[in-house]
Amino acid sequence: MEAYLDNAATTRVADEVREIVDRVMETDYGNPSSRHQKGVDAGQYVKTAQEIIAKTLKVEPKEIIFTSGGTESNNMAIIGGALANSRRGKHLISTRIEHPSVYNPLLFLEKFGFEVTFLSVDAYGHINLEELKAAIRPDTILVSIMLVNNEIGAIQPMEAIGKLLHSCNPNILLHVDAIQAYGKMKLFPKRWEIDLLSVSGHKIHAPKGVGFLYIRDKVKLSPILYGGGQQRDLRSGTENVPGIAGLGQAAARIHRNQKEKIAHMEQVKQRFLERAVRLEGVEDHSGEAPHIVSLSFRGIQKSEVLLHALEQKGVYCSSGSACSSNHPSVSGTLKAIGLEEELLSATLRFSFSVDSTIEEAEYAVRVLEEELEKCRKFVKR
Question: In terms of Cα–Cα distance, which of 367, 374, 364, 375 is closest to 5?
């Protein structure tokens, strides 16, 4: 049996998504900037995807800009937002548990005279609203906070954050990394006073290499890509029409009967958790998100050893953010929540999707129990 429990890293492309991607590549392959019928047909796929996604967020289609994925969306929002508004100030605020595609653009901006305040989090991964309020200055121009943490699944109180920021200064831009949130919970950018919101397609059963950025109407961004002026001069480059069409289809799919889908993910997560936490030396730091479980294992020196042992039995999980695994180091998120030293390198993430099953969860825990016992026997005393 196989249990793919690494859906926070990437998801399998849904059949109906693959079909529309194939159709665009094989038949409707025109350039949407071309003025002949092939171009018009390609452009219609882009327009339709915009309309579908806008409807899921209750925003306007013109407020959706397509990108190559979550990393570009985050870079576009942070770097583009900071540069466009630098005359008003150069102070930015974020947290200590952000994804590298947020953290590293902030470090990049520091080289150009911007100052960043990083907020702490509690043991559950939540920021303190009073600390946020105290961090706001007259020269604060942008705040970037992840809605659902990609490692532990902590959910930030985004509505309260939006209202707090804009009550202090309505000109502060609020950017939200919603890459682990979109499709897994209801999102209300307008009500929550969000100005910029990033999403990646391959987290919701769309292809890799496509995503979008919601940009509230009248928000000023400086482009970070220059060229032919596509997408309102905000993101030049020929649109990835097959990927965009697939993203639109995936967005429609994951929001169809969304309440039931979220409940299903939560059920699978809880079935996995209630059995896993009974195992000896297992500690749970999972947040509120319906699809992410974070577990630490006492008596295990390196999580990768256990990860590969599970892999040999067809159970796939992660030792942290898939993106940061290219530059392995101790997780900043786990350090920020105060995890004790011996558990920092002994933690695994299990993540579920709408396609995950109870059977997969139960099988994974059985294998986990067996492999934990074996791995602990080889730990040097």
Answer: 364
* The pTM of the whole model exceeds 0.90: yes
Q: Partners of 199 in the beta sheet?
A: 212
What crossing angle do the helices spanning 241-255 and 15-26 adopt, rounded to 10°?
Answer: 160
CB 111 within 8 A of CB 85: no
Residues 264 and 355 both lie in one domain: yes
Q: Choosing from 168, 317, 323, 375, which is the catalytic residue?
A: 323
Q: Which of these, 53, 325, 42, lies nearest to 206 by C-alpha position?
A: 53
Residues 105-159: pLDDT tens digits?
999 999 999 999 999 999 999 999 999 999 999 999 999 999 999 999 999 999 9
**Do residue 77 and residue 216 come from a single domain?**
yes
The alpha carbon of 130 is separated from its chain's Cα centroid by a whole number of angstroms, namely 25
Give 216-229 as a DSSP string: -TT-----SS-SS-
Treating both helix axes as pointing N-terminal to C-terminal, what angle do 303-312 and 358-377 enclose, rounded to 10 degrees?
A: 120
Q: Give the CATH number, domain containing residue 166.
A: 3.40.640.10
In contact, 354 and 261? CB cutoff 8 Å: yes
Look up 168 and say whether it is catalytic.
Answer: no
Tell me: do 141 and 276 sit in the same domain: no
Residue 298: give the domain boundaries: 3-11+257-377
Handedness of CA 345, 202, 180, 110 (dihedral sign): positive
Residues 6+ apart with CB under 8 A from 274: none
